[in-house]
Amino acid sequence: GESVGLHLPTLSVQEGDNSIINCAYSNSASDYFIWYKQESGKGPQFIIDIRSNMDKRQGQRVTVLLNKTVKHLSLQIAATQPGDSAVYFCAEKRLTGGGNKLTFGTGTQLKVEL
Amino acid sequence: GAGVSQSPSNKVTEKGKDVELRCDPISGHTALYWYRQSLGQGLEFLIYFQGNSAPDKSGLPSDRFSAERTGGSVSTLTIQRTQQEDSAVYLCASSLAVAGSGNTIYFGEGSWLTVV
Known about the structure:
The complex is a heterodimer. By secondary structure, chain A is mainly beta. Helices cover 0% and strands 54% of the residues of chain A. By secondary structure, chain B is an all-beta fold. In chain B, strands 2, 4, 5, 8, 9 and 10 form a six-stranded mixed beta sheet that branches. In chain B, strand 4 (31-37) and strand 5 (43-50) form a beta hairpin. The A-B interface holds A 31-32, 34, 36, 42-46, 49, 51, 89, 91, 93, 95, 99-107 and B 4, 31, 33, 35, 41-45, 48, 50, 56, 91, 93, 95, 97, 99-110.
C-alpha cells in the first residue's frame, strides 16, 4: 500500500554536528514531500518542502534531498542546536487524486546532546 | 487570526460522553483538515474540507466521528459515545487551496482528549 516511513525512530547528535534524518516512501505519484518539526506538546511546524521534479532544496540551516530512483528523502540540519530537539515527520502530498491532504510517516525523535 | 486556533486545548471526558472540538483556521484559508495523533505516533488523516465541495471523510474511523464546517470557516469535530481508544491529540490544519500548487498546510496546537 501507499506509505511514507522512516528508517530510524531516534537519532542522537552532538551539538554543532550535522544531522541527517531519512525517510522512505512508496508512492511514485507524490507531487510534494514535506518535513515537519514537532516539539513536545505542540502542533507540527512546517520546515521545508520539495516538489517531486526537484532533487535538492535548501533553506535556513536545512537541506532536503530527494532521490526518486530509490524513493528516498532526507532532511539535513547543519550545526544542530539544542532547539532542534524534536520529532521530525516526513509527509507526502498528491495534488490530484490525493485531495491535497498529507500522508505522514511515523516520525524520528532527534535528540541534541550538549 | 495569526494561526490555526483550536479549543479546548485539553479535554477530559468520561467514556460514553460526546465531545466537540473546535477549529478556527487561518483567515482566508479555504482548505481545512483534521488529523489525529495517538501518543508517540504519527498523524492519522481524518477529514478534509475544501471550499464548498463535499468533504473527504475517508479517514474517519467510525460513524461515531463527524465533522462540519459552517460558513466555510470554523469547523467542529464531534465524537459521540467516546471510547478510551479515542484518547489522542486532535490536530486541525488549514491551507490555501489552489489547484496545482503546493500550498503549505499549517497546524494548530491541537486538542488533547483523554477519555477515562
